[in-house]
Fold this protein.
Amino acid sequence: MTRKETESRIVDILRDGRRFLMTTHVDPDADGIGSMLGLGVSLSRAGKEAVMVTPEPLEAPLSLLPEADRIVQTFSAESHYDAIFVLDCGELQRMGSLRSVAERKETTVCIDHHKTNDFFADINLVEPKSSSTGELVYRILKRGGFPLETVTANNLFAAIQTDTGSFRYQNTSSRALGIAAELVALGASPWEISRIVLEGYSVSRLKLLQAALGTLEFHEDGRIGLMTITSRMFKETGARRIDSERFVDYPRFVSGVEVSVLIREVENKGFKFSLRSNNHVDVADLASHFGGGGHARAAGFEREGAIDVVKREFLQEAVRYLNGTPS
Ligand SMILES: [Mn+2]
């Protein structure tokens, strides 16, 4: 199926169906949640039923997105849905405890832009060249003539804005900007969405950043920048996991840094590595070496073991990528 055929197929499913179940990846971000809300709210305005579910209740700032209170943590498993949508999720494992949702007998549709997507659904609209899942959802809604009012526009804007780093990253294509402009014309407010998603810091969050910056280290002549956040830092500052969102950018901001790394300790589960790169290192490839995945410039993986060991193993592999792409 070509991309166009896949899109038409999804439009048909949305037009013909009446009840949909939808979800996104664990540790959701504004692309996953904004895409789900954009799609779900539009469908409900069209008189259909969209059950939007996440394994855990949303935390601020995601819980502050328009109509985010529609998202629930339980759904009727006995009910029949006309299709199941999985948004911004590259693999079954990333669905966490909702993994079984994708294994139900109903048709599953994955809309995603991760280059490591493994096509786990029945229908997969996967476009690594797309800036965000929000961009893909917008195209589907527009193509199908579904309602695009302020709430949907704001949520899809949040999705695109977040995944493009506020229209700075390399995925900031003319198409992404064009869609963002259309969303603003439909009522999205860049200022209000920025205040919700990017600003609105708590004091704890700033204190966590202070502690994290204290751990900054550089390797390989300043080409790798790394920060570590321990469970203790989370505890001492009273910050939540979601408060460390985008901290990985700080080492990347430093001139000369190619690979930026944020290591976060996950209580009793080892460490989560978040990776960013500036120019040439494909961090999705690098992450896949450790069982993770993502995009060329943003990826991640999880690792168990002692911090010194996991860090050393990672740096050894990262160096190989810094010095050219290993096969
Ligand atoms: Mn995304």
